[in-house]
Amino acid sequence: MHRRHFLGASLVAGFAALGLRGCGMPRPLRFGIHPWIGYESLYLAEEFGWLPASVELVKGASALDSMELLKSGKLDGAGLTLDEAIRVHVESPELLVVGVTDVSVGADVLVAKRGIRNLDQLRGKRIAVELAGVSGTLLLNVLDQAGIEWDEVTVVDVPVDKYVGLWKRGEVDAIACYEPTASILLGLGGVRLFDSSQLPETIFDVLVVTRKFAAMVPDAVRALLEAHFSGLRHLVRNQHDSVYRVATRQGISPMDVRLALASVMFPDLASNRRYLAKDGRVEQVARSLSRMLAREGLVHRPLGVDRFSDNDFLPRSVA
Amino acid sequence: MKRWILGYLAFAVLILPLAGTTLAQGIPDVRFGIYAYRPDFIMQERYQPLADYLTGRIGIPVKLQVLDQEQMRTALASNQLDFFLTNPSQFLVIRSERSLTGVLATLVRKHDGVASASLGGVIFTTAAREDITSLADVQGKTVATPGRHFLGGFQSQVLELKEAGVDVLRDNRVKLVRSHDRVLRSVLTGDAEIGFVRTGILEELVADDPGLADRIRILNRQNLAGFPYVVSTRLYPEWPIAALPHVNSDVVRRVASALFAIEENYPAALSAGIAGFAPPADYQSVEYLARELRVEPYDELPQLTWGELIGQYWGWLIAVGSLVLLLTGAMLWLRRKKRELAAEQRRLRRLILSWPQPMLMLRGGEFVDTNRSALELLRFVMPQSLLGKDIAAFSPHEQPDGDVSRQKMQRLLQQVALGEVVQVEWVFRRSDGSEVWVDMTLAPVHEQDESQPHVLCSWYDVTRRKEAEQRQRMAASVFDHAREAIFITDLHGLIIDVNDAYVEITGRARADAIGRLPPLPLEEGIGVFASARSHGFWSGEFTSKRQSGEHFSLALTVSGVRDERGAISHFMGIFSDITRLKAQEKELRTMAHYDALTHLPNRVLFTDRMQQVMAQARRHDDLLAVVYIDLDQFKPVNDAYGHKAGDELLVEVAKRMRAELREEDTLARLGGDEFAALIVNITEPAVLENLLARLLHAVSEPVPVAGHLVQVSASIGYTLYPRAEELDGDQLLRQADQAMYQAKQKGRNRYCGFDSAAS
């Protein structure tokens, strides 16, 4: 189970669109998204008709769908977390980060049993985590920050939906997870030992496209980003409307949407430019993350490209 | 920051009741305006508890004033309000007209236990109108709305419809009915087909009249989880409450804290149907909407001052300004250049047109331009006569070299197309049929991007030269082929040139002849040139020597050749070889005076000589004798041996007689066998008689003729001169003849003198 799955229960029949591509030139950008607050900008853009014809949204249930379709060449781009993007990139096709939708500031949490008061006490403990997901990245960072070696803890690799059961049975001492599982576990007596607000500008949700497509149809990539920023403006500046729409789509209450909005930051155009710059934050994080993943054997090789991100496709201004 | 303010406000709420008592002393009351989005009495009834609550909390009487749009404006303009609660659109307009402190709080409504700080618009029609089901169906329908300044009651719907392609402001009849309740009434009574109301209204009305829900149909219904009202548009923040600048800040603070302190279950909240007040919302989305729709306060584009413009865009302005300057400069420069070019072109054209040498322009082998001289050369008047035609059209079918004109010109133009400049002599036929020779030059005029390059064609009239050449050729031919020898000398008579005949006649090679004198008469020599100079010519006949040394006669005419000024610059001589002519002349003369057989003078010459010697004899008083000799028996010889033998005899006899005579004497044959002689200087009779005797003897000697010896004799008569009487030659000869007759009679082979007595 991948992160960003829980928020969207609806499986959209977007896949049907995959086979319906016309033969006109150039073909639209097939972009995979799934329900996550960071990608709501694109859903909103589509809802308000701000999505150009050159972009075709393919709606999956989770990041897993997008990753699979990217690998099989059925997508030209997708909304993914940065670590997911690296995982796809090292296997092919090679990707390029063209936009940052959000930065996690507390959405990712390490919940521990009440007795554990600091990170040091994690040594020798059993920690549940979905290694292939973003929580794996969180755990890696936590252990890195605490100076704990990977083999000093017992990692229990389980999918997200098993967390609550594990917790209730007391089989693990800590769980790396994210909202809303985190809130549930906290409600069950867990302690917020660490969250992503302590890892500033590290967990990114990004818009990626295949390098091939970016070189081939750069205009479609620009159009995608323009739509994203239009949607983002509505999401942020017109929350009185957007919370209801997000709530409706994700099947949660407007209050939950407000909470979700609070756990992430939405970088605007200027911040995007900064994040995606040469030697910008995304580039740095991607490199250290890929090294970390490679070191732990979670990916088979590091990035291997000069630039993993590019701010060239960002629009000049938001219309 | 906001949280800090909130905290501060919460704190203020706690201490307010204490402070209120002191404040109340200076301020009589607080005027609280509220916009009447529903009928006055309903508004009054619902919001009076809120006013009462605030009065209680701040310790100053709060007076509620329910105002419509116009009333609110008037009240605000005269500072008759301290606080007001109105819809966001109206708030934007007011804010743009007055300086406000910003929004204090945003209203939170509540319906069915669900609170919301958002509002939106509802678009509806009656349930009976089954033809209206989507936004697109609203096109052209009559719309009822409470007023243009209503966010939920007009503007939100207009934006939604605009994005669906329906421009309400332009295409729909809009009825402004001033309140939401009347909108519903208008739609239900059919006055309007479409109704615009804000969210919450329908729910309130349905609460009063449960059957209403079935009588209307909501268009573009939005499915928004957690939003308590039915809605057709996107949502915007709820009503803001704002304070005016003149209000004491303590009062503002206390009112704000009182507002935030309102709980859902307070009577003030319950009565107004609200959940309370939330921290000020972000009203930017409302501003976007107003901008998008161009409604107040954004109905006019902001006036940008020059200062702002320059301040913000100075870089661009300078760039654009310099560009414009550059462009203007370039344009002016170009215009000047163009004018100069045009003038140059005109000058050039005038020059070409008036140039005395014919010039034309060809394109694709056809004339496209011509000057006056070219027209005049071909004797045309209008340029149109030439334009569009090719050169061959004005040429004879064939050129003098035998080529067909059209083919030759095509060949030449092909050469020109390859970049060559071609020069050729060409014959044109003029409009009057006469022909004119020109020296034609064809030169390519290269212009890039021309498929068919222009060819410049110029003509030079060489007809005169051609004629002169022809004359010269003729003259040269005459010179070369004349039978007469022709030579040209310089002023000294030295030869410059000679013709073939000269060489032939003189036997002198041309190279030898040049630089020497021509044949000249011995006596005059180069004097002939002086004569020719003074008389214009000299002519004469003389003898000269050929190279071989042979003599020849020639008839020469020398004339002066004059230069342009009339002065003699050369001499030209013509002569012919007249040697044969001279010989013939001599022969003829001989034939006239001599006997062809014996070569003795004949009767004519004899008579002539006789005249001469008679004149001589008279002058010198000399004596002469005229002798008549006739051969005896000549005829038998002739008959016996033939004429040839007779002739031989005559020749022999004549020779013997001639030999007997002296040099100064004359022997002539008068015809047949008759001879005559003139004997001069007879000093004494014996001389004569002696001579006559020798004659007889000479004749009588045998003569071998035709193999035979023949013997003849002669009978001779003579007479003397002068005599007593004057006699002429004929008389003398007759006398001699008579005397010879006597000699015949006396027996032949004798001589007898004429005796006048005897006759």
Secondary-structure map:
The complex is a heterodimer of chains A (319) and B (759).
Chain A lengths: L28 E5 L6 H8 L7 E5 L3 H9 L5 E5 H10 L3 E10 L3 E5 L13 E4 L4 H13 L7 E4 L5 H7 L4 E5 L2 H7 L3 E5 L8 E7 H6 L1 H20 L1 H12 L3 H9 L1 E2 L3 H7 L5 H15 L24
Parallel strand pairs in A: 1-2, 1-3, 6-7, 6-8
Antiparallel strand pairs in A: 3-10, 4-10, 4-11, 5-8, 5-9
Chain B lengths: L1 H22 L6 E6 L4 H19 L3 E6 L1 H9 L5 E3 L2 H10 L5 E9 L2 E3 L1 E2 L1 E6 L15 E4 L5 H13 L4 H4 L1 E4 L3 H10 L4 E5 L2 H8 L3 H4 E4 L16 E2 L2 E4 L5 H13 L5 H6 L1 E5 L5 H10 L12 H49 L4 E5 L2 E5 L1 H7 L26 H13 L4 E8 L5 E11 L8 E8 L1 H19 L3 E5 L5 E4 L1 H7 L3 H4 L13 H9 L1 E9 L5 E12 L5 E10 L1 H15 L9 H18 L3 E9 L1 H27 L5 E6 L2 E6 L5 H16 L2 E3 L2 E3 L2 E9 L7 H17 L5 E3 L6
Major β-sheet annotation of chain A: 6 strands, mixed
User: What structural class do the secondary elements of chain B suggest?
Assistant: alpha+beta
The helicity of chain A comes to 25-40%
The gyration radius over C-alpha positions of chain A equals 19 Å
Major sheet size, sense and barrel closure of chain B = 7 strands, mixed
Intertermini distance of chain A: 37 Å
What radius of gyration of chain B results from the CA coordinates?
78 Å
Number of helices, where a helix is a run of at least 4 consecutive DSSP H or I residues of chain A:
12
Which ranges of chain A are low-confidence, i.e. pLDDT below 50, for 5 or more consecutive residues?
1-24
* Apparent shape of chain A: globular
Helix fraction of chain B, binned, reads 40-55%
Counting helices, strands and paired strands, the structural category of chain A is: alpha/beta
